[in-house]
Amino acid sequence: MPTVLVTGATSGIGEATVREFADAGWHVVATGRRADRLEKLIAELGDQVTTSAFDVTDAAARDAAVAALPPIDLLVNNAGLARGTAPAQEAKLDDWMAMIDTNVVALVALTRALLPGLVERKGAIINLSSVAATYPYVGGNVYGGTKAFVRQFSLGLRSDLAGTGVRVTSIEPGMVETEFTFVRTGDRAKSDALYKGANPMTAEDIAATLLWVATLPPHLNINTLELMPVSQSFAGFAVAREGVA
To answer: What pTM was estimated for this model as a whole?
Structure first.
């Protein structure tokens, strides 16, 4: 039975991924900060799931958790954070640093810790990036920058790991209806308005995609995969005009 480690497993895409892989017969190590939500996964899925409650940005807790892990065949770096929607000149530096610590520093540290075992087992890494890595938008500033890092880091890993048998994929979703926007804005009405009538993707859609990538024949690698709901497309260029209100 292969084993997958899923970070950020207490909600949204991470939680759906735990269920998707468990239902497919994988042993899932689910990690996240909220121990009560992890316990619910165990109650639901039984011994298909092992949990580890820790904050990925806490280096000591992360290292202790890694030391206790079973051999891992697939790392799904899903834990991520978006804070604030203000333009850069009005954004809070603390929000920026929190996003960098979670989306970049923690992801890099966990990946590096597991790489020797993944090479030994000819495993795989799936990193959750975003369309924000490619398409900038007002207020996306550091969040988009962190996701661009995740995309480029994934490609760099592919280059370094050539010949090892380890596969690496950057998954880059557009609009997915989860609690992500509510957590980002703290405003339920704004979150609901964003998704209303848009027929966005679901966490289950992305989880099914991750399983598909993970179960492809071992000689195939999906380098990057960008997904959007049919209702979502690309914004036009913004133009600031002098003398126009």
So the answer is: 0.94
How do residues 199-231 score in pLDDT, each as one tens digit? 899 999 999 999 999 999 999 999 999 999 999
Alpha carbons 150 and 129: distance in angstroms, whole number: 6
Q: Please check whether residue 99 lies inside any domain of the structure.
A: yes
Distance (Å, whole) CA 173 – CA 110 = 22
Which residues, in sequence order, are CB contacts of 144 under 8 Å at separation 6+? 130, 132, 133, 136, 137
- Number of domains present in the structure of the chain: 1
pLDDT at 245 over 70: no
- Just list the catalytic residues: 143
Contact 80, 102 (CB under 8 A): yes
Domain span holding position 211: 3-227
Check which CATH number belongs to the domain holding 37 and give it.
3.40.50.720
Tell me, yes or no, whether 9 lies in a domain: yes
